[in-house]
Amino acid sequence: MITRIREVRRARGMTLEDVARRCHPPTTPQTVGRLETGTRTVSVGWLNRIAEALGVEAQDLVHGGDSSELKVAAILGPGGAIAPRKAAIVVPPRVSDGQIGVLVAASVGDYRAGDELWCETLGPADYAHALNRDVLIPRPAGRFLFGRLINRDDEKLQILPLEVGGRQQVVASPPWLAIATKLVRSL
User: Fold this and answer.
1) Mean pLDDT, to the nearest integer, of 162-168?
2) Full-model pTM
3) Is 164 helix (H, G, I), strand (E, B) or coil?
4) Cα separation of 52 and 19, whole Å?
5) pLDDT category, 1, cuts 50, 70, 90?
6) Is the bond preceding 93 in cis, omega lying within 30 degrees of 0?
7) Nearest-angstrom CA–CA distance, 74 and 9
8) How far is CA 123 from CA 60, 96, 157, 161, in A?
9) What are the φ/ψ torsions at residue 65 (nearest 5 degrees)?
10) Which H, E and C letters describe 13-81, residue by residue?
11) Over 134-157, what HEC string results?
12) CA dist list (Å): 47 to 19, 58, 110, 161
């Protein structure tokens, strides 16, 4: 079976070590490299593990599969747009369990009207991973608070709203929070 593991890994901007660490259970970068080059046989189990680590569907890793990709025509940098030295692709993100979306109706902070935010939900034990990141926190009566998590003190979270002149909010013991991980913006 001919795979596209290397193409997809590079499109995701990940190293062999990144993929190996994100596999469940973790593996070694050498094993991922052998799977990429075909020196180790890629079983369905391995294909599923690598796909999950890369955040794609297993079919996206197989040539000829019904995969969705976008060919890269140019790379934009400080010197302008240049052609890629090697063929490259962009693989669309995959929705996973625990992800939620936020639609931006009016421009606020770094976000513009029409933006879509993809967020990963976290439980109380993982709140430290969200420090200095934009988060969505549930409030009573179906309300929410969105802002930058600036401090976590015992069971209290301190949130700085994105609005100019907004006052810091303190939320005690929320059951979950969602950290903004992807921004989708139409031009």
Assistant:
1) 88
2) 0.63
3) coil
4) 9
5) low
6) no
7) 18
8) 30, 16, 13, 21
9) -75, 170
10) CCCHHHHHHHCCCCCCHHHHHHHHHCCCCCCHHHHHHHHHHHCCCHHHHECCCCCCCEECCCEEECCEE
11) EEEEECHHHCEEEEEEEEEECCEE
12) 12, 6, 37, 42
Element (H, E) at 102: strand 99-103
For 3-15, what is the mean pLDDT?
Answer: 86
The Cα–Cα gap between 32 and 46 comes to: 9
Q: Rounded distance, CA 146 to CA 106, Å?
A: 13
What CA–CA distance (Å, rounded) separates 55 from 24? 13
Strand partners, 179: 120, 135
Say how many CA atoms lie within 13 Å of 103 toward its Cβ. 2
Question: Are 169 and 161 contacting, i.e. CB atoms less than 8 angstroms apart?
Answer: yes
Q: In sequence order, what are the beta bridge partners of 70?
A: 90
